[in-house]
Amino acid sequence: MIKRTKSISKELTKNDTGETGAHQAGIHVPKQQEILSFFPSLTKETKNPRHSIKFADPMNEKWTFNYIYYNNIFFGGTRNEYRLTGMTKFMRKHSLKAGDELILKRDDNAIYSIELEKQNKISTDKNGKLKLGSSWKVINI
């Protein structure tokens, strides 16, 4: 039987890496079904459901990140977003900066791995301002 690997990538922003100094709870995950299908499913019936996911990096070091659906909008709050959190130590250890790319992979046995490409590029508009927006890509779903 041939093992298939699903993979997505995220070009990191200054906000993702903490370079802006702003506080945020992890990397925002867009609500695109193709991106969400990479992660374990989370239910709306529970407030802020989460799932811990163990990833192996290229050196086979294990990292546990949390995939969270902040859904308190359904419980009297305002948030309605998915995030991947618990990544600060990983980012610091690998000296990740804006423009670097994370590649997340999952095989048929739900074994997760993470790779990185140091690119040191930052997208800017014609005025030199940082361009934000979705920098997630589906590689293979």
Task: Give the secondary structure arrangement, pairings included.
Layout: E1 5-11, H1 14-17, E2 27-29, H2 33-36, E3 50-56, E4 62-70, E5 81-85, H3 88-93, E6 101-107, E7 112-117, E8 136-140
Parallel strand pairs: 3-7
Antiparallel strand pairs: 1-6, 1-8, 2-5, 3-4, 4-5, 6-7
Region (Disordered): 1-23
Domain Restriction endonuclease type II EcoRII N-terminal: 8-89
Protein name: Restriction endonuclease type II EcoRII N-terminal domain-containing protein
Can you characterise this structure?
- This protein is globular.
- The protein is mainly beta and 141 residues long.
- The longest helix is centred in the middle third of the chain and has 6 residues, at 88-93.
- The protein has helices spanning 14-17, 33-36, 88-93; strands at 5-11, 27-29, 50-56, 62-70, 81-85, 101-107, 112-117, 136-140.
- The protein has a single domain (5-140), classed as At1g16640 B3 domain, CATH 2.40.330.10.
- It is built from 3 helices and 8 strands; from the N terminus they run E-H-E-H-E-E-E-H-E-E-E.
Features:
At1g16640 B3 domain, Restriction endonuclease type II EcoRII N-terminal domain-containing protein, DNA-bd_pseudobarrel_sf, mainly beta, 141 residues, 3 helices, Rest_endonuc_II_EcoRII_N
